[in-house]
Design brief:
Length: 312
């Protein structure tokens, strides 16, 4: 998170470059806060019906595994926002004010290399150009840092969503709000720390130093994200998969059991249900308690009765 402030010198967007070349105040950007608003807004969309209204013959709720929701509203709103911002960016000048002086100083100090006059953009220049890129430390460090950041973003955030949703039973909207509440202070603190490091190590006008700082901070960020795995998650035994329905090793382990054989359950409908005593059922149907066809002895009751016998 602290690397967000070191990225602006390397960004290729006109808006960020304009700020970096003209704003002398080391104020951190707040571009890392957009996911905090996207999570609750997107989850709110997914709780709504995808059409104009819910048909009367469809009896689905947001908690049903077949529920889809109006997922398309989020990408639609984001696309319209990008188009609106694109129109504004089109008003930026071709050459930013002060850019020539900044680049001239970078060439003089050696932070920026002069263009290779031998490369004309032909097919035979692909290998020499690739060699130049691989020898460019700024390019390599920045791309590695971006790769590490993407690894954390696409790996940690969905996992965090599932942990809150499955472990604590929170709905989609509440899970999005919780993630937003967690991200807002953490991202803001990371930006403030990154702003201090930018001034402390004087990397604001040096792309090479900024890229190296970003790379090392991303490595630290990855190890920091892995800290949430230290407590670990207790594994829940699945009835009919890990343990027998009557909690006895003598019985054959299978999803179907006399307590749910009349429910006509489908293994294609995976919706885990906590049955207590550290046991999870594949779906409410396999727990022997579907509303439409209740069984005489629900499967989840077999564990409770077995515990009572052992205690007695």
């Amino acid at each position: 998170m602290a690397t967000d402030v070191t990225r602006p010198p390397l960004d290729s967007t006109s808006s960020t470059a304009n700020l970096m070349e003209n704003d002398k105040t080391p104020v951190p950007t707040m571009d890392g806060d957009y996911p905090t608003t996207a999570y609750p807004v997107d989850d709110k969309h997914t709780t709504g019906y995808p059409g104009d209204k819910n048909p009367p013959d469809v009896k689905l709720a947001p908690t049903h595994p077949y529920w889809i929701g109006a997922w398309w509203l989020g990408p639609l709103a984001a696309g319209l926002g990008v188009m609106f911002c694109g129109v504004i960016i089109l008003g930026f000048p071709r050459h930013l004010p002060g850019a020539y002086a900044v680049r001239k100083e970078a060439l003089r100090s050696g932070e920026m290399k002069k263009d290779d006059s031998h490369l004309k953009g032909n097919i035979r220049d692909i290998l020499p150009a690739t060699k130049n890129l691989l020898m460019n430390g700024t390019y390599i460090f920045q791309n590695l840092a971006t790769t590490f950041g993407t690894l954390v973003g696409f790996g940690l955030y969905p996992f965090m969503y599932k942990v809150i949703n499955e472990r604590y039973g929170a709905g989609s909207l509440l899970t999005g709000v919780v993630i937003a509440v967690l991200l807002v202070p953490s991202v803001s603190l990371g930006l403030l720390i990154g702003s201090y490091l930018v001034r402390r190590f004087r990397v604001r006008r040096s792309c090479h130093r900024a890229a190296r700082l970003t790379f090392f901070l991303q490595i630290l960020g990855i190890w920091g994200a892995l800290n949430m795995l230290i407590p670990g998650c207790p594994y829940s035994n699945y009835a009919g998969v890990d343990v027998a329905y009557d909690n006895r090793s003598s019985q054959k382990i299978a999803l179907e059991n006399p307590c749910n054989v009349g429910c006509l359950c489908s293994a294609g409908q995976y919706s885990p249900v906590n049955g207590g005593e550290g046991v999870t059922f594949f779906s409410p149907c396999y727990a022997g308690c579907p509303p439409q066809k209740p069984t005489k002895v629900p499967c989840y009751m077999m564990f409770m009765m077995d515990e009572e016998v052992d205690d007695g």
